[in-house]
Amino acid sequence: MIKDKKRVGFFILIALALFFLSWLIYFLWHRYHYAVTDAVFVQADNLIYVSFPKVNGKLIKLYKNEGDLVKKGEILAEIESTDYALKVAQLEKALKEVENQQSALGFNIAKLEREIPLKSRSTYKTKG
């Protein structure tokens, strides 16, 4: 009876040793074939790289962080607008100057149109 218990215990010990050995072989094989890191992998439908190629300026506020979900039309960041405000003011001033020039040219055209008939009348008088 004691021999039978020893024999069963021996087989259980052998089975556990084989299980542990097979697990160790699989573990080493997996470590050898695959890089195992603590890095996190993100699954996404598609990745979009965001940049602001058409505007330059200092980033004032960032509304979304890397990895946040973003919906179409959401504001991602705010860029300092002082440079653009100055540029708008300069362009408005230039527009006003052009409008003034246009107005002055309109007055010149009206003046010349009034003078042309007078000169043509004086030409008829000298001929006739």
From TrEMBL:
Which InterPro entries would you find in this protein's record? MdtA-like_BSH, MFP
Q: What is this protein called?
A: Biotin/lipoyl-binding protein
Compartments annotated for it: namely: Membrane
* Membrane-spanning ranges: 7-29
Q: Which residues form a coiled coil?
A: 81-115
Limits of the Multidrug resistance protein MdtA-like barrel-sandwich hybrid domain = 53-88
Protein origin, superkingdom: Bacteria
Where does the UniProt entry say this protein principally localizes? membrane
- For this UniProt record, give its keywords in alphabetical order, as a comma-separated list: Coiled coil, Membrane, Transmembrane, Transmembrane helix
**Membrane topology per record:** Single-pass membrane protein
**Could you give one GO CC term from the UniProt record?**
membrane
